[in-house]
Write a structure and sequence with these properties.
Number of strands: 16
Strand order of the largest sheet: 7-6-15-9-14-13-12-11-10
Number of domains: 2
CATH topology of the largest domain: Aminopeptidase
CATH architecture of the largest domain: 3-Layer(aba) Sandwich
Low-confidence stretches: 162-166
Oligomer: single chain
Structural class: alpha+beta
Largest sheet: 9 strands, mixed
Shape: globular
Radius of gyration: 21 Å
Number of helices: 12
Mean pLDDT: 94
Distance between the termini: 40 Å
């Protein structure tokens, strides 16, 4: 059974650098982004003293009580393929209990099911289908089923979410595979051919209209943020402050200068779309996006997405991840537009194992759940 102890951010960073990938939410830089949480880097070590796992733990203290929820977003980064998850998780829980955790929340980075673009489109078109889970998946992963079964046996509780969005991380995402099943890289042409006709036409139109997409620098964050606030007002969500993005840029780029990239799409000098992309090893994410209501006809959003996908292919990434979608396929639901936009890329809907809680102090855990319900 591996042992667990705190490690330095440098040890944490070095361990992740030796892996094909890990979630950016498990990098030491993310601790600086979430500065309102107390944070700790943990390492798993085998009998020979070799590091075999890592985690970023974020501690959220309960109001008026000196106890915390220990949260490992999309982690820990351990070997999830075996039959002895207890051997990995038990020493972690023992350590977190000593740190004053009343409960632990994890997000195993393990895929459970996948659906093709065609299946998702058919589901949206079928009035009898309201949820993705009603469609038999193209793939059920044995590894995912094994992890879910073991967590149940070990007393962890799955945090079911209404419609697929949680207070934590999304269980359903949309991804474009950038490699063939044999591991070879897909070409730009192959990825483009996998997109629907509308996406291909919009990418072509943006080029014809003279939309220019460039990588930005930290100095371009205010321009991104202004467009992002405009997008938030139009699409009715609460925007994050500029300071959040400045902190995110500095923290993630301190881990690796290639980790975060700001992209800007301009037409005749006007900023029409802007996005933030993140990459850890072979996994590239579309993280934040903004678009102008004016000049929508020049298709800046498609142009900037295509630039990010091409960049991910050039970097040798295995997957381009458009992040969360809801589970709903109801044509009347306002979230369906987001799914349809992402489905146009020709990728696949992917379900992860989701987030799981282990109550350590049951009365406090119950109080915490009531507190969350009241907050709404």
């Amino acid at each position: 059974m591996p042992s667990v102890r705190p490690i330095s951010p440098t040890e944490h960073r070095d361990h992740l650098a030796g892996l094909p990938s890990a979630s950016f939410l498990q990098t030491p830089g993310w601790a600086k982004v979430k500065s309102e949480w107390r944070s700790e880097s943990l390492g798993w070590f085998d009998d020979a003293g070799r590091q075999v796992g890592a985690a970023l733990v974020l501690y959220r203290q309960l109001p008026k009580v000196n106890r915390s929820l220990a949260y490992l977003p999309e982690g820990p980064v351990i070997d999830w393929t075996g039959d002895d998850l207890a051997g990995w998780l038990d020493p972690m829980v023992r350590h977190l209990r000593k740190q004053g955790a009343f409960a632990v929340r994890i997000g195993p980075p393990v895929v459970t099911r996948r659906w093709t673009t065609a299946q998702v489109k058919e589901g949206i078109a079928d009035p009898g289908v309201r949820l993705l889970g009603q469609i038999p998946p193209a793939e059920r992963t044995p590894g995912g089923a094994r992890v879910v079964a073991q967590l149940h046996e070990l007393g962890w509780r799955h945090q079911g979410v209404e419609g697929g969005f949680a207070a934590g991380q999304p269980q359903f995402v949309f991804q474009v595979p950038l490699r063939h099943p044999d591991g070879t890289q897909r070409t730009e042409d192959e990825v483009l051919k996998g997109m629907n006709q509308l996406w291909r036409r919009n990418i072509k139109k943006a080029a014809k209209e003279g939309v220019e997409v460039v990588r930005g620098s930290r100095e371009d964050l205010p321009a991104f943020h202004e467009l992002y606030v405009h997008t938030a007002q139009r699409d009715h969500f609460t925007p994050r402050p500029l300071r959040y993005f400045e902190t995110m840029y500095d923290a993630l780029c301190a881990d690796d200068p290639e980790r975060l990239t700001l992209w800007l799409a301009r037409h005749d000098g006007d900023l029409v779309a802007s996005t933030i992309a993140i990459r850890v090893g072979e996994h590239a994410w579309y993280s934040y996006g903004a678009s102008s209501t004016e000049k929508r006809e020049v298709r800046g959003s498609n142009a900037v997405q295509w630039a990010m996908i091409r960049d991910a292919i050039a970097a040798g990434a295995a997957v381009y991840d458009l992040r969360g979608i809801t589970e709903t396929l109801d044509a009347e639901d306002s979230h369906v537009g987001l799914i349809q936009f992402k489905v146009g890329t020709g990728g696949e809907a992917v379900e992860y194992a989701g987030e799981w809680d282990l109550p350590i102090n049951r009365p406090l855990y119950k109080a915490f759940q009531l507190y969350l319900k009241r907050r709404g």
